[in-house]
Design goal:
Layout (H helix, E strand, L loop, with lengths): L3 H10 L10 E6 L2 E6 L4 E6 L9 E4 L7 H7 L5
Length: 79
Amino acid sequence: MTTEKDIRNWFGDRGYPIEDNSKLKFKVLNSWLFILDREYDEIELYETDTIYCEPYTSWDKKGFNWSNKNLQKLIPISD
């Protein structure tokens, strides 16, 4: 997943379409998607190599650091 269309399709394919007028900010690292729908106050984290569409966790958008270095620290470590 690299484009906004890919992101919208991923959610839509799982039964959670994103409104066409939603303004999204996102980054994908490995199989993890960080996404902000600017109408909401949280950045959500999703695992994209699954059929499920449930956020793993979320953070307040205020002051959130979108740098790759910070996002890498937020990705859960696999056992």
